[in-house]
Amino acid sequence: MNWTEQAAGRVLIIKLGGDIDLQYSPKLRQLLQSKISTKVPLLLLDFADVRYIDSSGLATLVEYYKNSRAFSGRLAVAALSERVHSIFDLVRLSEIFGVYATVPEAEAALLAKP
After folding, report:
1. Sign of the C-alpha dihedral computed for residues 29, 113, 7 and 45 taken in this order
2. Alpha carbon distance 110, 13 (integer Å)
3. For 10, which DSSP code?
4. Domains in the chain, ordered, with CATH?
5. Edge-to-edge order in the sheet of strand 98-100
6. What is the pLDDT of residues 54-112, one digit of tens each?
7. Structure pTM?
8. What are the helix (H) ranges across the chain?
9. What residues pair up with 2 in beta bridges, in sequence order?
10. ∠ CA 39-60-31, rounded to 5°
11. How far apart are CA 87 and CA 20, in angstroms?
């Protein structure tokens, strides 16, 4: 797993790549915990280059979502491949946080909500 970060106004965009599985989800957890400690209010995860995510990766996302609620942080994910989107659908994560087709759509949704 690899990532890059880009601040786009009030939204922090993290572009993830590779597989997010048991081997790499601890890196994602560490990355997201650093965003919790700095209380990033609007976080957008760009999944365009993510090939696969397993239950440990999904649990890491849910953990971030839960912990960010303490400071009213919001999370959105965007640009999921068909394979990754089917995994999100299977566990119904789109009911917990926003899942969007494109990064601009996700960014607009994060900025639009109060």
Report:
1. positive
2. 11
3. T
4. 2-104 (3.30.750.24)
5. 2-8, 11-20, 42-53, 74-78, 98-100
6. 999 999 999 999 999 999 999 999 999 999 999 999 999 989 989 999 999 999 999 99
7. 0.94
8. 25-37, 55-68, 82-90, 103-112
9. 17
10. 50
11. 12
Confidence check: pLDDT of 48 > 80? yes
Which amino acid, 15? K
Q: Does residue 113 surpass a pLDDT of 80? A: no
pLDDT at 114: 61
Question: What does the pLDDT look like over 49-70, one tens digit per residue?
Answer: 999 999 999 999 999 999 999 9
C-alpha–C-alpha distance, residues 75 and 61, integer Å = 9
At position 100, the amino acid (one-letter code) is: Y
3-state helix, strand, coil in the chain (%, to 5): 45, 30, 20
The token duo for 77 is 């994910």
**Cα separation of 28 and 74, whole Å?**
17
How far is the C-alpha of 55 from the C-alpha of 65, rounded, in Å? 15
C-beta of residue 85 within 8 angstroms of C-beta of residue 92: no
